[in-house]
Amino acid sequence: MKVLVPVKRVPDTAGEKKIDPNDNTVDRESVESVLCPVNEFAIEEAVRLKESHDAEVTVLLVGPESAQPIVRKALSYGLDAGLQVTDDAIAGSDALGTARVIAKALEEQEFDLVLFGNQSTDARTCLVPAAVAELLGLPSLTYARHLEIDGGSVTVHREHEEGWDVVTSQLPAVVSVVEAINEPRYPSFKGIMAAKSKPLDVRSLADLGVEPEQVGANGATATMYEFKDRPPKEAGTIVEDDGTGAAAAQLADWMTEKKFV
Amino acid sequence: MGLSFGLEPEQEQFRQVVARFADEVIAPAAADFNAEARFPVDIVRRMGEMGLFGIPFSSAYGGMDGDYLTLCLAIEEIGRVDQSLGITLEAGVGLGAAPIDEFGTEEQKQRWLPELVRGERLGGFGLTESGGGSDVFGSTRTRAVRDGDDWVIDGDKQFITNAGTELTSVVTITAFTGDGEMTAIIVPVDTPGFSVGRPYRKVGWHASDTRELTFDQVRVPVANTLGERGAGFRQFLKTLDDGRIAISALAVGLIQGCIDECVRYGRERESFGRPIGQHQAIAFKIADLEVAAQTARQMYRYACWRKMTGLTYKREAAIAKLYASEQAVTAAREATQVFGGMGFTTETRVGRFYQDAKILEIGEGTSEVQRTLISRDLGL
Q1: How many other β-carbons are positioned within 10 Å of the β-carbon of residue B355?
Q2: Interface test with A, best of B12, B14, B21 (most A CBs within 10 A)
């Protein structure tokens, strides 16, 4: 089977992120860029499909040329090939614009399964996987915490607040995974060395037949006009137990007031 | 040009992967497995899966085709969070697999190396005896006597790393096979007459496996001779030269771990109304640790570079080992001082490093042996 794993370059999740006031996008200079940690769960699932179903896995990244080390990093887990879509016109795309580029890139590929992380750790919209499925007219199975392939179908456990639903679909399909699905392994030194020589195809918007005005800042359906620094953390309320049990009542009142219970 | 301090992008990427593994998998478990003096076999297996035990070996034997510097980077990163696992890796590669890779016949390599370089099994190297370790020629009592196509070995070995784990498959030992003739022989651990003693009650390296070995009429085929008969002395000198560079990396990991912990604690912990790192008495200690780490790191990498470019490196390896290990002892003492009472518990990394540091001045050649090597090399 053939699997595609779209990945994203994001600012280090643990780092202090800044917005560049000149173009209202993330200031890439201010923080190290990394492979989105949620992607590692999709990659691990793909590696497992390599082991169990002899899957051939291609990693797809939409981003500038400087993001190429992120493609190599994804390949170091043992994936087979890379595909990068690079074009200046993509800069500033919102979730829908990004989904248009990914969908067009996928149209050129043969695949049985597309494996996304359910969200990126920078934007956290969770929109792209479903948008790609919609644009391609394919079944969309999101928030998968478990995945099984059986012949021509895929079954996932779709996570929600009250548990999970068991959802089955014919292939090809688009799946997004949540972090509960597996425990990603660490790349081996052999994988890192092998990633250097894996095939990597680089495409432009023109190659894919995407109109530049449909993507990038111009094609975005949302615009950021203004931003403010996060307000400093305020001191919380401290409830002290005086031994009478009054503290418990105070906590219960506070939780009711905040609608936690 | 001709002077480059940079790592290859792949080396840097791998260093980061090992650092992350160390922080995420080893660090949270280290206080417990050290307190229990337990060899953490599950973590060692995962290190094997990442290819750590195969870094400098050929892919023909399941290795990673990497270089010696990459191995040292991994040892430094593991050693930064736990010295027991750092020495487990150093000894597994440098003492277990490397002598077979370097001096073994093709048959020996095919038979023993693949499972060692995949980290599925571990090998030991038996040199030191109850009579001593530095004066190998004068203190070795173990003898191997030829009997038909076999060697029959009698004797003992002391302080042998990785010799008694559930993963251990072989121990390469040195024995006299004639007058002044020292030979290295590969002994599978399931050979009758071979036995390992209880783990030592050590001051540090609590989770590393260290054993006494006893050989009572141990019979192995002459085909288990490592390389040529009589080459044992030369072989172990070469093995120890390499090991000194790797021990330097382990010591640098310890110093770096002290720095990381002291910087964190120096920002968090307050006394007299401010973080202790803002007291000059503490800040200067930590600055000195940084000087030691950077200096020792450059020295081991220089020795590595000389080895990898085919230059002599005996003196540089001795300098790197001597300097890094003595600085590690100082770093552990000062970092423990920064932590105060907490530093005197083995719940803290610096407290464990205080226990672990001393052996770095003893194993793979004592500080006195290093000074002897350096001064002799200067023509004294």
Answers
A1: 18
A2: B14
Residue A18 has pLDDT above 90, yes or no: no
Predicted TM-score (pTM) of the model is 0.88
Which of B172, B162, B164, B169 has its CA nearest to residue B142? B172
Report the complex ipTM: 0.80
> What pairing do the DSSP bridges indicate for beta strands B143-147 and B150-161?
antiparallel
- Inter-chain touch B14–A192, beta carbons under 8 Å: yes
User: Can you tell me the distance from the alpha carbon of B65 to that of B60, in angstroms, rounded to the nearest whole number?
Assistant: 9
B316 counts as catalytic: no
What digits encode the pLDDT tens for the residues B330-363?
999 999 999 999 999 999 999 999 999 999 999 9
CATH no. for A2-214: 3.40.50.620
Residues 35-74 of A with CB under 8 A from B: 69, 73
Please tell me chain A's helix, strand, coil percentages from 3-state DSSP, rounded to the nearest 5.
Answer: 30, 25, 40
Q: Are residues B279 and B143 in the same domain?
A: no
Q: For residue B46, is pLDDT > 70?
A: yes
The predicted pLDDT at position B1 comes to 62
Is A186 near chain B, with CB under 8 Å?
yes
Provide the pLDDT confidence category of residue A230 given band limits of 50, 70 and 90.
confident
- Sequence-distant (≥ 6) Cβ neighbours of residue B221 within 8 angstroms: B149, B150, B151
Residue B234: pLDDT band (50, 70, 90) is very high
Q: Is there a domain that residue B3 lies in? A: no
Nearest CB to B10 within list A185, A186, A196 = A196
Cα B158 to Cα B153: distance, rounded to the nearest angstrom: 16
- For residue A189, which residues of chain B lie inside 8 Å, CB to CB? 14, 50-52, 54-55, 64, 66, 70
Query: In 3D, which of A174, A153, A173, A157 has the Cα closest to residue A165?
Result: A157
Is A183 touching B (CB cutoff 8 A)?
no
Strand partners, A82: A59, A200
Distance from CA of A20 to the nearest CA of B (A): 28
Are B97 and B145 in a shared domain?
no
Please identify, among B171, B203, B230, the residue that sits at the C-terminal boundary of a domain.
Answer: B230
Whether A192 and B17 lie within 8 Å, measured CB to CB: yes
For an interface test with A, give the residue of B15, B17, B65, B72 to mutate (most A CBs within 10 A). B17
pLDDT score of B204 more than 70? yes
Q: Does A190 touch chain B (CB under 8 A)?
A: yes
Question: Considering the domain boundaries, does residue B284 fall inside one?
Answer: yes
Which of B57, B50, B58, B59 shows the shortest CA–CA distance to B77? B50
The residue that leads in pLDDT, B196 or A226, is B196
Cβ contact (<8 Å) for B64 and A189? yes
For the cut 90, the answer to whether the pLDDT of residue A21 exceeds it is no
Residues B21, A186: C-beta atoms closer than 8 Å: yes
Q: How many residues does chain A have?
A: 261
- Give the whole-angstrom CA distance, residue A99 versus residue A211: 13
Q: What domain range is B131 assigned to?
A: 123-230
